What we know:
Elements: E1 19-29, H1 33-44, E2 49-52, E3 69-71, H2 83-93, H3 100-120, E4 144-145, E5 154-156, H4 162-172, E6 176-178, E7 181-188, E8 197-204, E9 210-220, H5 249-256, E10 261-262, E11 268-269, E12 294-296, E13 305-306, E14 348-349, H6 353-359, E15 366-369, H7 375-385, H8 393-402, E16 412-414, E17 433-434, E18 441-442, E19 455-457, H9 468-486, H10 496-507, H11 518-532, E20 536-537, H12 539-555, H13 565-590, E21 601-602, E22 615-622, E23 625-632, H14 639-647
Parallel strand pairs: 1-2, 1-9, 2-6, 9-19, 20-21
Antiparallel strand pairs: 3-5, 4-5, 7-8, 8-9, 10-18, 10-22, 11-17, 12-15, 13-14, 15-16, 22-23
Amino acid sequence: xxxxxxxxxxxxxxxxxxxxxxxxxxxxxxxxxxxxxxxxxxxxxxxxxxxxxxxxxxxxxxxxxxxxxxxxxxxxxxxxxxxxxxxxxxxxxxxxxxxxxxxxxxxxxxxxxxxxxxxxxxxxxxxxxxxxxxxxxxxxxxxxxxxxxxxxxxxxxxxxxxxxxxxxxxxxxxxxxxxxxxxxxxxxxxxxxxxxxxxxxxxxxxxxxxxxxxxxxxxxxxxxxxxxxxxxxxxxxxxxxxxxxxxxxxxxxxxxxxxxxxxxxxxxxxxxxxxxxxxxxxxxxxxxxxxxxxxxxxxxxxxxxxxxxxxxxxxxxxxxxxxxxxxxxxxxxxxxxxxxxxxxxxxxxxxxxxxxxxxxxxxxxxxxxxxxxxxxxxxxxxxxxxxxxxxxxxxxxxxxxxxxxxxxxxxxxxxxxxxxxxxxxxxxxxxxxxxxxxxxxxxxxxxxxxxxxxxxxxxxxxxxxxxxxxxxxxxxxxxxxxxxxxxxxxxxxxxxxxxxxxxxxxxxxxxxxxxxxxxxxxxxxxxxxxxxxxxxxxxxxxxxxxxxxxxxxxxxxxxxxxxxxxxxxxxxxxxxxxxxxxxxxxxxxxxxxxxxxxxxxxxxxxxxxxxxxxxxxxxxxxxxxxxxxxxxxxxxxxxxxxxxxxxxxxxx
Length: 652
């Protein structure tokens, strides 16, 4: 289409199908937290590095707006748990349904990573002594801790400062950054899936230009998919917890390149992400960022907190301490469902609060009451925590404050039981789900290399990996491993036929005069997942889903239409969403057992977590045929020994 094809003239030159070729030793796909750290780590080793991001690096990615806590740094000097003990406790609490490799990297290098971030300009301490003397502050270091004040495994941080600091370091190191450039495919040796990855292709979403990236080592850091069950660009906005541009590009690209993925069957009821949700952390609650806030009912009656044994906790500070009845540590996110759920159960509000409300013991609505909190706790919640977690600094802290909200005088209404099912969740339609914490992704080894030579991964691109600190530490780890790998290989020649096929695929929508818009296509694909892969699953239902998906891809995908580069980029997104949906459906059909931790319910296989199904189910494709497999739940072997062997510059 011409640049005058719309009512408003497109502000950039149109360069459809024109090529730009870029070469480097290391290629980083994704400019979020994991991608920035991977690029910085590789550049510090002296490698030439290119970073590609479809947004703007200064705020892109899940952690772009910020974070309020840095989790599980067992190497920090205040922690009572060493990295080995902490990682094993975390694994047990999840019945090993988590990634041991990335968990250990996080626990063993979280603090040293945080100190490097401070050197770049990130704020990690109470340098102004604003909270001097607070029970959560270490006076010698001015570090502040969250949730568990005894074990000090999670640090309070000013995460809004992190992404700008990382960007400045990228620039200082000379990393070549391609912003507004969407990665679309991986290039492989001889153009065949499963062979060594030697680069990638990209689409500039402002000009439409086609970019060819050549590299010796490539890392994907494009996070987990969203928009598989629910999508509405007009309604979600700030209410979406994860960036809605996260469409699973990396998962789809890895799949087409022949990489192995696992845990794709895991999803959960919609959490903080629906079209009708309230902005995350913008309604009064006592969980996560708001821990350990007081909660009261409509008459001001305080709702008690209890420990893991149901014993009432008499004071605010004790809500941030393990139970005195022999508890070693607690996890600040309840309901993980692992073998050690009791051992790691955190302090919480009365667990039967919903029943008590229904009986009339407490009157709706409920409120978060910061006015009666100790001054330090009130200011750290409504300030450091709400001011830095995800998308909260402007839409919550600033907007509410500008509107007159005063935490010393005002209560903040909670929507718990006014349609919601828990303190942090909105009303759930069983057809509406999402991939969230610990979702599926690529399989990696201790070098964070995927099953395809030359292709690495970091952050939430890796299966069962979650969190800001995990993204940073895995990015930092993989950058070094990539440089070691690149030193031992030569740059292979690109296969022209593979490039031409990719250009044909992604530019097809601009050669149509009209057709199906990307938003309509995305909503249609969501309906397929809602109807055939929702909370309750059966073999026949999911097979119908695959059949309908086949028809949808066959009949509707060829009609996708885009009339400018931005829409073309979004159209490439929905092509990838279809691929991810196919992976989810196939993975769900593979698991012939239900699972509490995976939030996985099959009506035709109702037994929960039978021992023979305590394993990872894997998928990869070869020549268009799906190959199914499995891995032991602890395939990574000894955590400590393998980490030490691979973090010391020894690629195994």
